[in-house]
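Readers of this paper often ask what the protein records in our data store actually look like. Such a record has a labelled line for the sequence and another for the backbone structure tokens. Nothing more is needed to write down the fold, since each code stands for a local backbone conformation. The record that follows is passed on verbatim for readers who wish to inspect the format.
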Amino acid sequence: MARNGKRNGKSRRRSGKSNMTFSGWRRENGRVGVRNHVVILPLDDLSNSACESVAHNIKGTLAIPHAYGRLQFGEDLETFFRTLIGTGANPNVAAVVVIGIEDGWTKRVVDGIKKTGKPVTGFGIEGTGDIMTVAKASRVAKDYLQWASELKKEDCDISELWVSTKCGESDTTTGLASCPTVGNMYDKLIPKGIYGVFGETSEITGAEHLARARAAEPKIGEKWYKVWKAYEDEVIQAHKTDDLSESQPTKGNIAGGLTTIEEKALGNLEKIGRKCSYIDVLEPAEAPKKGPGLYYMDTSSAAAECVTLMAAAGYAVHTFPTGQGNVIGNPIVPVIKISGNPRTIRTMSEHVDVDVSGILRREMTIPEAGDALIDMVLRTADGRLTAAEALGHREYSLTKLYRSA
């Protein structure tokens, strides 16, 4: 765990002409990744076993099993394809092997990833069986892994980094310390040309007027409000019982002092700082198209779902403020945990990357905490494993919009 952005009592110094650089892998489409994964990606739940067998055969590759992929239709299916294709297209991925039960949908994912220019091959199990499919896919995966192992990193400017954010297991300290830390980071890095994104549609309930006003222009604010209102009317109000207690806020949030969704929402919005305005509203797993800046994505407030969607949109590093301690990770994107809760620092220190509890003790200012987070983002981009990576957390959860056919 990093304390106050220092190691061994000394602030980290970075070589070169700027302290806002990192070393990354430049992909065929020009994007820069901070990890170099070779992914074995199942199209559907039926193909999880074959993908895991390939990853077992070829050490160093990464299988990403998931629960969906059959009998989905409409917008639910489109979200599914955006997420799978976006996962393989993420710049932290060097090459991909896709395995599906049949060739048609498998090819659609392969073709989507292929647009990035990176190596990708697909296999269908029907008519071949697991054993032959695994054998053929393993040979390709081995070649991809050896090829990726020789790729060279290059120095990159901070402006080439895409940084997402989502909070979890929030409490009163989250809105006072860890979320404002992320907000300060964005206030400093968005002007330098990075891409940022925040989300959690249901969790802005009670502060929707504030979120609407933070849009870069009124029509973007109206676009955001339409997204929020649709969820409020079509999901929350249509399906709630008496209230959302123990769901939103969660039972853990309530135990941490956030007794209403309004309290939670005000802390959540601290993540976008004091100066940033969002420039567009994205669908789940949609890649940003308006250039550098802060975006909003329509996502669940569930940790694994939200991080999965943002990774599928192309974000390469995730910042995760927490109060009581959330252990979430992601298979392809490093998740940096920030906490300002002194008890969490004592009891769950192995899960925390940036300790900002000094804010509550008045030993650290929010700008100092923001600087410490920026330093950790750059160290992570350079290759430092996050706590979640070191502990093996690879949570990956697809968003389901409605029941399958």
Observations:
- The mean pLDDT is 92.
- The chain has 13 helices and 17 strands.
